[in-house]
Structures are given as C-alpha cells and as structure tokens.
Amino acid sequence: MKADRALLLLRDVPLARRTTLCLGGAAAALVRIGDVDTACKAADWAREHAIAVAILGGGSNTVVDDGGVDALVLEPTDCSLSTSAVGDAIHIRAGAGLNWGELVAFSVRRNLSGIAALSGIPGRVGAAPVQNIGAYGEQLADVFVAATCLDLVSGAIETWDAARASFAYRDSRWKREPQRPRLILDVTLALSAANTAQARYPDLRAALSAAGHDADAAPLRALRDAVLTVRRRKSMVVDALDVDSRSVGSFFVNPAVSSADADAAEAALGARAKGQARANGQARSAAPAATAMPRFGLPNGDVKLSAAW
Q1: pLDDT in tens, 43-57
Q2: 3-class DSSP string for the chain
Q3: What pLDDT score was predicted for residue 185?
Q4: CA torsion angle 159 34 89 130 (round to 10)
Q5: d(Cα 1, Cα 26) in Å, to the nearest integer?
Q6: Residue-wise over 270-285: b if at least 16 C-beta within 10 A, else e?
Q7: Angle, helix 100-109 to helix 220-233, in steps of 10 degrees
Q8: How many Cα atoms occupy the beta-carbon half-sphere of 251 within 13 Å?
Q9: CB–CB of 165/173 below 8 Å?
Q10: Among the ranges 2-11, 156-165, 245-254, which has the highest mean pLDDT value?
Q11: Is residue 53 a contact partner of residue 43, using CB atoms and an 8 Å limit?
Q12: Cβ(222)–Cβ(270) under 8 Å?
C-alpha cells in the first residue's frame, strides 16, 4: 500500500477489513476525508485522472467484489460533534465519519430525544440521511435539519435542507440520483430536551415492562437498552463476539400500500385462515383473526405492512 503525500492518496487498499462481512478485494485508490478541503482535492483528482468515485462509510451494507474496486474510494473520517440551542430544540451537528451508534449514545447522555430508538443501526452519520434510516417508530427525516454535501460532478459545496432531500420511506434524493453522486460531509439534527419517550412497538414495550419501566414514558436510557436488547436477540447489532451479527443491512423494505390494498390483503388473509381452519376440522372461532395483521399508518395516508410478518 503506497501513499501520494500531496493528497494522502493510498493505493491498492484492501477493503475487506473495512466491511462487516470482511470480504472483497482492494480499492485502486482511497482517500480518508476528514475535512472539506481534502474532499474537494480528492474530487478534483478523480476528475483529472478520469477515475470513478465510490463512497465507503461503515461498510455494513456493502459487498465488495473479490476482484477489487477500480475507483477512488472516499472514506469519511470527520468525527466532530457540536451542539447549539435553537429555540426549543437542541441542534446536533455531527461529522459524516462519526459512528451512528456513538451519536445516539451522546444524545441519550444529554437527555435529548428523537433518535434513541435508532440505537444499534450500523454505519456512520453520513450514510444515515441517504437511507433515511428508521426503526421502532422513529426515522431520521423527523429530526433532520440540514447536511453539507460535495457534488462530486461539479465540485460545488451544497447545503441541503429537508425539502431538498425529499425524504420518503427508507429513501431520499441522494439515493434516487446515483448518476449525480454527492458526498455528505456533515449532518445537523434537531432533538428535543426530554428525558422520556414512548415506545410504540410491542417487542419494545414488552422489554421495557419486563425491566420495570413505563412503556408510555420510558427514560431514554431504558429505551435505548431495550432496543439494543431486542436487536441483539436477532443478531442485528454488529458485535465481534457474535458470529451471526456481520450485518449487511436489510435486503428489503416493508411494503407501503394504499389503505384499500391493506384492507383487501387483511380480508384475503382472514378468509384464507378460516378456510384452512375448516379444512383442518377446526371451529370457525379458532381461525386466526384477520386483524392480527400488523399495519402502520404513514403520513401520506398509505399503510406500511410488515414484510417479516
């Protein structure tokens, strides 16, 4: 592995150890992005040498080809963290290279609510808006204020607000425009100064109740612990001691359908369950209730169904 001192450009960098699956070959070149100036220089270098650019964060949703990556890989490393009071909210600005879990832990220590339920999600802060990460009733879009980006095509530094990000369920404009790649340099979130939060999902409520907490007003630390407990039970927390936890993220999203389609699916499942019960000689009352199908309302009026269920 050789370095270009002018840009601290690393050549032939093995990527396996930079991913949770620990697979794959080397990058033709890699630059660790700790500030705006380095990011701009790296983008300029890639354009001058006509080489493709790839962005690698925590490597938890990445499968690297064994043959390597013929590109300049940009690895965000800015782990800066600062807070400021803006009206009734506390704004947290975090560098793109900060581990997402560390940001959540920081917010919980400061009694700032809004992202405690997002504990245990692997990756770095810079990737969070791209996917509009979410879990257990919370999502990044609900607390997003702005992100500083570098347009890797034009070289322009941009500030994106929520409107420009155009968030949707596990989606954003960053994700929808791969032909116009942008490197997120930092993210600002608006959190509430409150030490409690309501747990909305049954498994979390059960975990909190078992620990002696009120699921409707759980301390943030207790909510975070419950989330981590539930996720660890499913090997969803990256842990070197758990061989089943080499997460590459979800390969699917829960289907979002119209309310009419959700009603039709529920009715069809109920009818099928009753038919199966009759075929098995069970009483009609013994058939599973159609209302057991999990469904969650979305802001646009659609209904999110549970793919896992």
Answers
A1: 999 999 999 999 999
A2: CCEECCCCEEEEEECHHHCCCCCCCEEEEEEEECCHHHHHHHHHHHHHCCCCEEECCCCCCCCCCCCCEEEEEEEECCCCEEEEEECCEEEEEEECCCEHHHHHHHHHHCCEECCHHHCCCCCEHHHHHHHCCEECCEEHHHCEEEEEEEECCCCCEEEEEHHHHCCECCECHHHHCCCCCEEEEEEEEEEEECCEECCCCHHHHHHHHHCCCCCCCEEHHHHHHHHHHHHHHCCCCCCCCCCCCCCCCCCCCCCEECHHHHHHHHHHHHHHHHHHHHHCCCCHHHCCCHHHCCEEECCCCCEEECCCC
A3: 98
A4: 60
A5: 10
A6: beebbeebeeeeeeee
A7: 150
A8: 3
A9: yes
A10: 156-165
A11: yes
A12: no
Of the candidates 12, 126, 132, which has an alpha carbon nearest to the alpha carbon of residue 75? Answer: 126
The number of residues in the chain equals: 309
| pLDDT tens-digit map of 147-159 | 999 999 999 999 9
CA dihedral for 234, 240, 244, 247, sign (positive or negative): positive
What's the pTM? 0.84
Rounded CA gap, 125 and 99, in Å?
6
Determine the Cα–Cα distance for residues 104 and 91; give it in Å rounded to an integer. 13
**In this structure, which amino acid lies at residue 158?**
E
291's tokens: 């209302």
